[in-house]
Amino acid sequence: MISVIVPLFNKEQFIQRTLDSILAQTFTEFEVLVVDDGSTDGGSAIVETSRDPRIRLIRQANAGPGAARNRGIREARGETLAFLDADDVWLPEYLARGVALLERHCVSAVSGGYTEFPRNYVPREVWKKRGLKEGIQPVGPQLDAAALVSMLAFMSPCSTIVRTESARRWGGFYEADKCRYAEDAAFWLKVLLNEPVYFHFDPLSEFHREGSQLSANFRSVRPLEPFLTDPGILKEECPPELGRVLDGFLAIRASRTATVRGLWGDWRSAADLMAKFSTPGVWNWPYSFTGRLAANPLSGWFAQRGRIFLEPLLKSPAALDDRPQTKWNFPKV
After folding, report:
1. Phi/psi of residue 210, nearest 5 degrees
2. How many Cβ atoms are within 10 Å of 289's Cβ, its own excluded?
3. Pairing mode, if any, of strands 55-60 and 30-37?
4. Per-residue pLDDT averaged across 306-333, rounded?
5. Are 130 and 27 contained in the same domain?
């Protein structure tokens, strides 16, 4: 059986569509755990009206998307976990395809393609250009760190199913301080570093941006990723032979975040990131040059004149992390 976990926070107008897409799955051996994370609208009431015995509503005080998904992981009775945000949709074959690949290839997780709405855009070719291929993703000592960045960027909760034992082994999602940005990244990275993962590009998930407040990559200074705030959460679980690959991954992601912070004039934060994750001989790595430019007291002047040039560059198909980010309405203060 699969346990489908739906974190719910103020998505009254979308939750019925999401539940309908789950109940329309051709694979029917599942339970649905809707974790209401302190909603203030009528979304939970809609869930309660469902007469399908497979749907269970769990309520908790607002703690963020990571905590909501982790509550579902603790309550899950299935051998496999699937996650779907309360305004996203699966096509009917999503669970059946994922389970078949999971069993056929004896992997710990299966991550698939998706369609972005409202653009109705399938980024299949973008991921192929970044070097991703359908099949088991090999992560070994000789792997280019940039390839690991792309693998992680491809994985999203709503398009990935994972064995329950793996999710519990690697601690689930990051939930400290009600984290609402990249709370899934450290979890998926632990899985990639330690267990086999299968990728496919069939767009069986629909990510709906139109009804969500997305964490913006470029429109403002984004929060620091948890694995940059505390890299120990990754290093403690990284196999020794993959330490070089992980250090490279952290250097690339730190350089990218430093670049974005520099675009908004926060050169001190950029300088801290570049110093903390400095790795010798990486001038040719993505964002290394722009990260160093951002870590300069003149970055405020540079940002005013360079944002027009760099922002389209960072948004281009060559950017290493343009996946749909966590969609979570921030509580009103």
Report:
1. -65, -25
2. 13
3. parallel
4. 44
5. yes
Rounded Cα gap, residues 197 and 194, in angstroms: 9
Q: How far apart are CA 185 and CA 256, in angstroms?
A: 15
Query: Across-strand partners of 161?
Result: 82, 110
With 0-12 / 13-18 / 19 or more C-beta atoms within 10 angstroms meaning exposed / middle / buried, residue 156 is buried
Two tokens at 103?
């069993």
Q: Is residue 323 part of a domain?
A: no
Token pair 């082994």 is found at 169
User: What single DSSP character describes residue 142?
Assistant: T
Note the pLDDT of residue 216: 39
Kindly give the residue spans of alpha helices, DSSP state H, lying in the chain: 15-23, 43-48, 65-75, 94-104, 124-129, 145-154, 164-169, 185-194, 226-229, 232-235, 243-263, 267-276, 288-294, 299-315
Between CA 130 and CA 120 the distance in angstroms is: 21
Q: Of the candidates 64, 63, 120, which has an alpha carbon nearest to the alpha carbon of residue 89?
A: 120
The verdict on 55 and 185 lying in the same domain is yes
Residues 171 and 73 sit within 8 Å (Cβ to Cβ) = no
* HSE value, Cβ hemisphere, 13 Å, CA-based, for 73: 23
Helix and strand totals (H; E) in the chain: 14, 9
As a whole number of angstroms, the distance between CA 176 and CA 66 comes to 8
Token code pair at residue 313: 């560059």
Number of domains into which the chain is organized: 2
Separation between Cα atoms, residue 35 and residue 198, nearest integer Å = 27
Provide the CB-side half-sphere exposure for 194 (13 A, CA): 16
Contact 164, 191 (CB under 8 A): no
Residue 310 pLDDT level (bands cut at 50, 70, 90): low
Q: Read off the pTM.
A: 0.88
Chain Cα centroid distance, residue 288: 23
By DSSP bridging, strand 89-90 and strand 55-60 are unpaired
Question: Residue 127 belongs to what domain range?
Answer: 2-208
Coil, helix or strand for 242? Answer: helix
Top pLDDT among 307 and 86 is at: 86
Rounded to a whole number of angstroms, the CA Rg of the chain reads: 20
